Amino acid sequence: MDGPHERSAFKQSDGNEMEYKGVQYDKLSTEDIKGQKFKTMEEAESFYYAYAKVMGFGVRQNYKRLSTITPGKIISLRLVCSAQGQRDVERMTNKKRVRRQKKETRFNYPCLFKVRYLNNIDAYVVVGFITHHTHPLAQAHERCLLTPHRSVQDSHVALATSMQRVSVKPCHTYEYIVNRSGGFQQVGFTIKDLYNKLDSKRREILLESDAEAALAYMRGKVATDSHFYCKFSIDEDNRLANMFWRDSNCLHDYTSFGDVLVFYSTYKTNPYGKPLVLFVGSNNHLSTTVFGFGLLIDETIESYIWLLETFILSMNNQKPIAILTDGDQAMRRAIEAVLPGCPHRLCTWHVSKNARNHLRNNQALSEFRRCMWEEVTPYGFERRWTTMVNRHKLHNKDWVNMMYEKRHLWAEAFVSGHFFARMRSTQRCEGMHSYMKPYLKSGVKLFELVPALDRGLLRLRFKGVLEDFKSNNSTHVLTSSLRNLEHHAGIVFTDSVFELVRKEIIGVGDLIISRTF
User: Fold this and answer.
1) What are φ and ψ of residue 243, in 5° steps?
2) pTM here?
3) Fewer CB near the terminus (10 Å): N or C of the chain?
4) Is residue 461's pLDDT more than 60?
5) Are 263 and 325 in contact (CB under 8 A)?
6) Taking residues 3-26, what's their average pLDDT?
7) 496 SS3 class
8) pLDDT in tens, 269-313
9) How far apart are CA 81 and CA 86, in angstroms?
10) Residue 217 dihedral angles phi and psi, to the nearest 5°
């Protein structure tokens, strides 16, 4: 060939076989290719990879030499069949191996393609081309599985990443790509390739820069939300320790519905094992509303004090009138330090669960629940509690004695005089958990967790929009005898609250006696 070979020399024949200068790839000989010229190294590589794919073998780089004059310029390259060479003898004979040896894939075959740059003609010339293979070549339907010819495109990575953000697993995204491509052989990569590519993208952000990426996301939020609040602390190694953040909607919701605060620590997340803390309340629809998030370095009293003080500061020093927690000892001490005198109630679901674990006797468990719910005065509680302890000989049971010391935090007789917005447990947080669970695995990184929590908030807040729309664009069918009062309640209250008020109105209406003369 007189000049540098252009890509147009490769063409598709009617028989679905690639050709080079009119010769099908499977008919090419050493004489056909040796001495041919390519304008760039990329063109030379493209030719050999296309040839290898049609023939049914993989390719790997065996040798590369760079120019000492022009940095980065390749002046010599040797590509070989993936089956060329042989495995290291030491690895083959190592008896201390724990894993079983993989099957042999190298058979020392001589097939190669070598090009060299010639400065006088400014082109890459083929100086070596051996086509001999003694191993079986891949069949036409197997060629899509040859490793060097598989690649995950950036568009597919972007699609899988976007799907992961809405809890669609990569395996389901892969099925979608297969369906859109017309079959597995047309995709160009395997499901394992997709998983490997996604893991590679995640590892591009190292653990040391993970917190930096999360904080950069926070700084980006400030640009679009002037009332966004984020505060963090660092440890002695200058690493992220504790962090709290909330947006302007959280501030607005807390101002309106922050009388009762659910303070809840959930899963330990990301590679650092940081516990995630939720600040949650109940809105005018009796639905869950989130006031803020916190990530702590540990679950000590000092960390909880820092978080509570930061939360109150971010809310313009507005303090709740009551708090509900799951019973964590360090959390309780922090509340006593930051909010002294604030009514505090333990989650009834956790109390009941612990009672089932410690009181194996069904009758004792039943009496404990009566102490918890049925007694409405301290005197009645003390009398029933003493009877339970004596009857079942629970005097020396540590858990029973500990619960008695904390009776003012869980027994109805002691908490009934305080306002808790109809909340008795921390189960409101479970709704957030169900959505967040895919993002709270032990390996999740901070830069992935924070946007995921934002998406959870968007989902939760849109539910509030739907509830507002339903309440504002419909009227209730009046059923009580006090129609005027019921109609006014339907205007003032949301649907969820109205149903509770109407129940009381109906009860009052039933007391009215009609007289006839």
Assistant:
1) -150, 140
2) 0.66
3) C
4) yes
5) yes
6) 54
7) helix
8) 555 567 889 999 999 999 989 999 998 988 899 999 999 999 999
9) 12
10) -65, -40
Secondary structure of 234-287 as H, E, C letters: ECCCCCEEEEEEECHHHHHHHHHHCCEEEEEEEEEECCCCEEEEEEEEECCCCC
pLDDT band at 207 (very low <50, low <70, confident <90, very high): very low
Q: What is the DSSP string of 120-156?
A: TTTEEEEEEEE----SPPPPGGGGGG-GGG----HHH
For residue 259, is pLDDT > 90?
yes
Look up residue 32 and give its two tokens. 């056909």
DSSP bridge partners of 61: 79
pLDDT tops 80 at residue 6: no
State CA 253 to chain mean position distance.
Answer: 25
Sign of CA dihedral 452, 455, 460, 461: positive
Structure tokens at 224: 């679009």
DSSP string, 161-227: HHHHHTT--HHHHHHHHHHHHTSGGGTSS-HHHHHHHHHHHHHTS-HHHHHHHHHHHHHHHHHH-TT
Between 486 and 212, whose confidence is greater?
486
* Least confident stretch, 77-91, 278-292, 370-384, 468-482: 77-91
What DSSP assignment string belongs to 324-390? Answer: EE---HHHHHHHHHHSTT--EEE-HHHHHHHHHHH---HHHHHHHHHHHHT--SHHHHHHHHHHHHH
Question: What is the rounded CA–CA span in Å between residue 386 and residue 393?
Answer: 10
Q: How far apart are CA 400 and CA 391, in angstroms?
A: 13
Residues 6+ apart with CB under 8 A from 263: 277, 279, 308, 323, 324, 325, 331, 335
| Per-position DSSP letters for 418-460, written without gaps between them | S--TT--SSTHHHHHHHHHGGG-STT--HHHHHHHHHHHHHHH
Residues 451 and 349: their CA atoms lie apart, in Å, by 30
Give me the sheet containing 344-346, strands edge to edge: 229-234, 240-246, 288-295, 274-282, 260-269, 322-325, 344-346
pLDDT-above-90 percentage for the chain: 34
The Cα–Cα gap between 349 and 109 comes to: 69
Residue 103 scores a pLDDT above 70:
no
Q: What percent of the chain has pLDDT over 70?
A: 84
Strands 322-325 and 59-66: unpaired
Sole residue written with tokens 């690895």: 91
Cα gap 483→506, rounded to integer Å: 10
Q: What torsion, rounded to 10 degrees, do the Cα atoms 45, 50, 54, 60 define?
A: 30
332/325 Cα distance (integer angstroms): 8
5: left (phi over 0), alpha (psi -120 to 50) or beta: beta
